[in-house]
Amino acid sequence: MRAHTELIHEDDYIWHAGELPFGEGKVRERRLSTDEEDGSTSLSLDFPGEWGRAGGVPHANTEFYVVSGSMTYGGREIGPGGYVQAPKGVPMDWLKVAEGSRILHWREYGDCGFDPGAQRWADAAGEATVLDSNAMEWTPAPTVGPITPLYIKLLNRDPLTGFYTRLIRAEKGWTDHRLAHHPCYEEFYTLGGKMAYNFGDIDDGTYCFRPAGVKHGHFIAETQIDWIIRSDGELINWYTTEEWVKWGGTAENYEHQHAPVISTMPLRSKSRGEWSGDGM
């Protein structure tokens, strides 16, 4: 299970040596979040020098999204907005990343393991895909209530589980005052723009990971803003309005006195600004 991260800016992480087995060249990573039980990991990659890797089979559902620079996959070059996805056990073609590139990388339901030159696993499903999101049209997302629509570009969706990766855009002035929560996790990385949010500002490089059931809102888009969003199931919005909060209780079996425990307090960057939970 991954920790609830509500909001962290990428610059508040430190760089580590990139964990991309059997690659050649220079790469470093910022580990945005990790599931220590199955190895699922969300990474921001930086390439101080050229990097490449021969074809092979990944041990996890694998995704790459080009933020800046370029990546060549099996001879096809993709720039910013380019996307590569391969299910676990499905062979990937060779990769080459240009010096100075920045890429988001996800491994789901598995670790960083990679078998060079291996054959397709017997139980593997699906095929590798390569997309240029710039060639895709923005599609209005369905809305509930009198809310200006968000816009989406669907990059990948698993027909069995509903797991998806998509780009989301909110136009300047978009707002939603309702608290929402979902039956699945929700993860996003901000690609550009700025939004005011009750847990702090959201701008370029801001990252969030919310487990299922975590309520969030209110939002106001101060500029046009774009995210890449992932979820491990069909994202259904359950809304709460006219909300109120009450907590308290009697300590039944505490062995010693300690500060109040707030189980819903997430990991968060101070650089995102103050919010009402500070000082408790």
From TrEMBL:
Chain segments annotated as transmembrane: none
Pfam families (alphabetical): DUF4437
Name of this protein: DUF4437 domain-containing protein
**Organism of provenance:** Allocatelliglobosispora scoriae
